[in-house]
Records
---
Amino acid sequence: MTANTPTTGDSKGSVTGVTGRRIFSGIQPSGRLHIGNYLGAISQFVPLQEEYDCIFGIVDLHAMTQIYKSKEMSQRIINAAVNYLACGLDPNKATLMLQSGVQEHAELAWILATVTPLPWIQRVPTFKEKARQQPDNVNMGLFNYPVLMAADILIYKSVAVPVGEDQRPHLELTREIARAFNARFGSFFPEPREIIGSQARVIGLDGKNRMSKSLDNCIYLDDEPDVIREKINKQGVTDPARVKRTDPGNPSICNIFTWHGFFSSKEEQAYCAKECRVAGFGCLDCKAILIKNILELLAPIQERQKELMANLDKVQEIIRDGTERARKIAQETMKEVREITGLTYLI
Ligand code: TYM
């Protein structure tokens, strides 16, 4: 696979312009994780854990803003944890935590909400998008979503947050909320910056929309090889103007070619572009090279997934330990926040 984050870091994981040590990011356990989550987020986390004090959350309170079955939540949390670990997060280097296990996140979210003017939230594009996607369930949680996200980040006084492109507005808002809090109560929270890699907006199989669990356009990290082959061959949209095998194609408007940029070598990319342009091969030939490379990338991840699924006690222990460590840091921050906001009457 080609390297992620050339714009923001070096090979050891140091990030230009990030001076503090604490990094936070999170993934919602709202379904199975897909290659968009991997490329946009998790593949950035792995090098960062070598250099920074990283906390990676499974943000189950955020996932509650969508309708779900209570009995499925534990399974989703396990799926997220297993994928974090299978993709290379090392619990000896990074902290893996469960958001609902650290109640201080919700407490800080309330306090931050009191310094957040309503119009700041009304203009957040992800709120508008979610409200469109789930018109029957436009709940207050969706509205407060970015404030809880700011709390996740600020409670650890994080200086940077590795995320995909869609999260950029949330990071801008987090900085504004930190600034508003600091203006009111005195300088306290750092203003965290986003770390956005070169694979930050992965389009789905439909060739149009961002790959997303809520759309049927994903390759999941635990999809079987046959399923991946079939999805790419049948659903993977290519250059729409290339109708017949003998038509020359245009790689620059083909999403499958963009995916080659993520998974294939420079030589393979050049070969595919050339053969496509002269109709030297068909889309299925181009897809075959891509499929081979995706399966090669996923094979060791899927092997580790299976090992971890057979060892769930260990996975649970890792989440429990990480959550405990995160809680200690969060409690320290909240102690200070209560002091500077005057919530100390009974203490
Ligand atoms: P979530 O669970 O939707 O996505 C997790 C991460 O995956 C990235 N991502 C993508 N990157 C590239 N292409 C895609 N198609 C794609 N789909 C998803 C997301 O950008 C994200 O980095 N709000 C967050 C969860 C969250 C959080 C936080 C993140 C809650 N609190 C604090 C950072 C810090 C979200 O919806 O993630």
---
Amino acid sequence: MADNPLLESDGLCTYYGTSQALFDVGIKVPSRGGVAILGRNGAGKTTLLKTLAGELAATRGRISFDGTDCTRAAVENRVRRGLGHVPQEHGIFAGMTVKENLLIGAMGNRTGREHIEEVITLFPRLGQRLPQKAGTLSGGERKMLAISRALLGRPHLLMLDEPTEGVWHGVIEEIAVRLEELSREMAVLIVEQHVKLALRVSQYCYVMDRGRIALEGPSDQIRDDPELTRLLAP
Ligand code: ATP
């Protein structure tokens, strides 16, 4: 793991009311490459991403991004600094067209409109559906739109919460290939139930259990670790 990570959390604790969901979570994400977060349902993966994105407040601990403390920074401030987040529920505007959704992603980015052309080349099927209402896209196309929209903010780190959830297996491969390509150029932090895919697009992996990091290591080693099977067993 890099000595100067782009994102680092240390001792992170998050609560929902009085119920603690994260316990002293420490992760590091280097400025390039993929990092995966795995864990059973309810292990705390989404809570971790939301805390890193600023949607949930950390009660204790510290988050630093690009060398600056951002533990208390607002969501918009983190986005401006380069922290992109594709939430599990993808947050696209169903009543707007694909193009309008992309334009929203490009807002605040001077070269955003030109960048749309570039982003569309990643997912050509989106380019063919620019006038279509986003609510009529397939599950996989919605995920592609959400990823593209986040990329238009020109993030340094792209955090993805289950990018292949509810996606037809033929499209999963397309998303996996794009994520592999992206992670060669930027930092990608991925939460995934699809363990094989997560380990394929990442070089380093954290496995969560009941709100804690229970196992971590290089993805090609974790893949064969019997502890991984135990931690992911229902
Ligand atoms: P999944 O893989 O099912 O999406 P996860 O690993 O992402 O699960 P989280 O959604 O982060 O897990 O949930 C962690 C814990 O926090 C769970 O016990 C969950 O019930 C609880 N939790 C999540 N959201 C809330 C909420 N809004 N209010 C109260 N508790 C919550």
